[in-house]
Amino acid sequence: MNTLYTIGHSTHSLERLIELLAMHRVGAVADVRSSPYSRYNPQFNREPLTTALERAAVTYVFLGRELGARREESACYRDGKVRFDLVAETPVFQEGLHRLRKGLRAYDVCLLCAEKDPIACHRTILVCRHMRGNGLAIRHILEDGAIEPHEDMERRLMRAVKVPESDLFAGPDELLEKAYTLQGARIACAETDRNVPADAPDGGRS
Is the pLDDT of residue 25 over 60? Predict the structure, then answer.
């Protein structure tokens, strides 16, 4: 299996995004935004993005319906907010993971979303959480082009949510899962934000 990268388009130019992808020899982009459009960064709307990627010989696939954070399924919401654990149980999410694994047989794939910090984005806290393991290398492309290995991101995540790396009554895996769950609750979108653009101020997550 090839390497899984992630990137947030943030406020980059299209040219800079292509440069970052080329820097790490990404062969395919999986767009996991629930809606592949941006109110404040229209250069990342689906049509111009697809055209730019095609010119750079990078394959584009939209997986926002399967792997996006803002869900159409009402069963994924509790108390007005999306629950990532419920999302992960849905057949459509599992189908998205299957398509991603299949793509990784042929390409180094990069998950694309809006947030520049992987810790603040569901591409990491939801999707990568369920892709990690089985020898898959996950690498996060940061704003300056540097790479943050997923293992380093997990340590940073635990510090961010104040979960210790060791505990008398819980093992490392249990503590890490707790950190993912806490951060998932922090970044989950509200049910009322299902149709709000991902990069709108105080809007829903991607």
Answer: yes
Residue predicted with more confidence, 1 or 100: 100
Nearest of 29, 32, 193, 9 to residue 114 by alpha carbon: 9
Beta strands, E only, the chain: 4-8, 28-31, 59-62, 77-78, 81-82, 109-113, 138-141, 147-149
Gap between the Cα atoms of 154 and 143, Å rounded: 18
The 3-state DSSP class for residue 175 equals helix
Q: Which tokens go with 181? A: 């769950």
Q: Is the pTM of this model over 0.90?
A: yes
pLDDT at residue 195, as a whole number:
56
Instruction: Return the HEC string of 7-59.
Output: EECCCCCHHHHHHHHHHCCCCEEEECCCCCCCCCCHHHCHHHHHHHHHHCCCE
Q: What's the pLDDT band for 204 if we cut at 50, 70, 90?
A: very low
Q: Who's near 53: CB < 8 A, 6+ residues apart?
A: 18, 29, 59, 60
Burial class from Cβ neighbours inside 10 Å (0-12, 13-18, 19+) for residue 75 reads exposed
Decide: helix, strand or coil at residue 69: coil
Question: Does position 206 have pLDDT exceeding 90, yes or no?
Answer: no
d(CA 37, CA 149): 28
Q: What is the CATH number of domain 4-193?
A: 3.90.190
